[in-house]
Each structure stands twice: as structure tokens, then as C-alpha cells.
Amino acid sequence: MKHILIVVDMQNDFIDGALGTKEAQEIVENVADKIRNFKGDIYGTLDTHGEDYLTTQEGRNLPVTHCIYGEDGWGLNGEILQALAETQAEVHDFCKKGAFGSKELGDLLAAECGAEECTIEMIGVCTDICVISNAMILKSVLPEAKITVDASCCAGVTPESHNNALEAMKVCQIEVQS
């Protein structure tokens, strides 16, 4: 059985940058500990935008420039990078994504798991946007996989929207751990 950890968008802009929140800052240590102690394969996503961000649909609806490829805000948080360097898990390349969910990640894990039984644990930000979007993609391409979300390693745009997303995932047969 494969054990997979998905680290969603633990980038500077979502932690203490342009779209950072107190809640995101508070989960960094939990996320780093989870990464350090994980046994299995680690994959992840990186929200990735270009200089034209404000002209995109997302940019028009969320007019806060963030995660511009190559800029400091696009990079993974330093504590997360350190944890990835220290883990004994197999760390794979993180998928760059220009949308909330990563089709590339879904395709990659569908090929990786194939017919083999796998468990997928998800952590990161934002629970109510990118974590839930990626969880739904993975549930779609791997309907028999056990997918869990560790709520203590996730943060949303607001505490309320974080909790709403966790409840929505439960209804879709994604297990939520705290």
C-alpha cells in the first residue's frame, strides 16, 4: 500500500505575505512536523501566477497580486523547506498550478497509484480554496483511495470558511482529522 502526503501551497504569500493570515502562520510548525515524520511519498502544489495575474479571471475576482513565479512570495516557507530537507520520506517535485486545483497532480497520482491501494493525506492552505479543490480532483481520479485532511495542518481564508470546507469534504467521503 502506498502512503502519500500532499502539501498544498505552503508558500510565503499565503503564510506571511500578500495573502497571509494568523491561522496560516500558526500551522507552519504542525505542517513541518508532519513532513519530518511522514513515512511514504510526499507530493505538493505551488500556486503559480505570471505578471499578468490581475488580468486573469482569478485576478479580477481576487485583485491581490500573489505567488508570482520566481518572486519571494512564490517560494515555499523556510521552515517547510527545512522539513522537506530533513524528512526520510521520498519527496517528489511539487506541481506548479495556475488554478485552484492541479490536474497535473491528479494525473500524476492516478498513474502512481494505479490499481494499487493508496492512502492520501492532505495538508496546507487554503482549506477553503486549494485544499478542497485538490481533494475533489483526487477523489475524482482515485475514487477508492482513502483521502484524509489533517485539519490541524490546514488554514483557510477565515476560520469560518475553513470549517465550511472541512464539512463539505466530509460529505464527499474525505475523512477529516483534527
UniProtKB/TrEMBL annotation:
Keywords recorded for this protein, A-Z? Hydrolase
Q: Which InterPro entries match?
A: Isochorismatase-like_dom, Isochorismatase-like_sf
Molecular function per GO: hydrolase activity
Isochorismatase-like domain ranges (all copies):
4-175
Instruction: Please verify whether the record's keywords include DNA repair.
Output: no
Superkingdom assignment: Bacteria
Which Pfam family name is an example for this entry? Isochorismatase
What's the protein name?
Cysteine hydrolase
